[in-house]
Amino acid sequence: NSKNKLTRVFMQKQEEMVQRTIEKTVALLIAAAVMIVAMFFPAYKGEWGLLHLNASIAERGVWQFRHVNVFHAILNAWCLLAVTFNLHVTLRRMICLFALCAACPYVKEGQYICGLSCFTIALTASNTFNVPNMRFFLFLLAATIASGFLFHSIAAYAHIYGAALGLIWGFANETLKEV
Fold first, then answer.
1. Residues 20-52: pLDDT tens digits?
2. Can you state the percent helix, strand and coil of the chain, rounding each to 5?
3. DSSP 19-68
4. Mean pLDDT throughout 80-97?
5. Is residue 30 a contact partner of residue 80, using CB atoms and an 8 Å limit?
6. Residue 168: predicted pLDDT
7. pLDDT band at 139, cuts 50/70/90?
């Protein structure tokens, strides 16, 4: 009886690991794409130019892989991997939040921005209702966003947009679980 229970628990853990492997693989592929694009096609060079309001969804989706420099790309890729590997992130959540972040760019100094950091903040915020210490988690999220206002080159308002998307997504999912 205890052997069957142990086998069931082991099989359940194996199944969870396989399910999470897909999300981790997608995050690793996104991180690799971000690094390759940042090294060879930085956002300030090339024929892509600036993102405009009438840009297609495909252009907005590709723009999330563009970064001003390699350091910015490394930071965003690291944050994406940290969120995906440490929090509960599903593939459906990744796809939906990526599309929502790409759909509505933020305007900063005449340039439209819909970056990977907005997507990463949205993924992080969507887990607010799944963490044991929600107040501390929200404090860290707010501190991260607030620190963005200290640096001129960071589009902190885009992070607020991403956090709002993630909180709405997390709240909706948590509410629908209870129904």
1. 788 888 899 988 888 887 777 666 554 445 555
2. 70, 5, 25
3. HHHHHHHHHHHHHHHHHHHHHHS-TTSSTT--B-TT--HHHHHHHTT--S
4. 88
5. yes
6. 92
7. very high
| Bigger pLDDT: 47 vs 73 | 73
Contact present, 70 and 46 (Cβ < 8 Å): no
Output the six-digit token pair for 122. 């949205």
Q: List the structure tokens of 97.
A: 């939040």
Distance CA 105, CA 63 (A): 10
Residue 59: burial class (beta carbons within 10 Å; 0-12, 13-18, 19+): middle
Nearest to 112 by CA among 158, 62, 45, 166: 158
Q: Rounded CA gap, 117 and 115, in Å?
A: 5
Spatial contact of 73 and 64, defined as CB atoms under 8 Å apart: no
Q: Which is it for strands 106-108 and 111-113: parallel, antiparallel or unpaired?
A: antiparallel
155: left (phi over 0), alpha (psi -120 to 50) or beta: beta
Average pLDDT over residues 158-165: 86
Instruction: Write down the residue that tokens 């915020």 correspond to.
Output: 125
Best CA proximity match to 108, nearest among 166, 49, 34, 51: 51
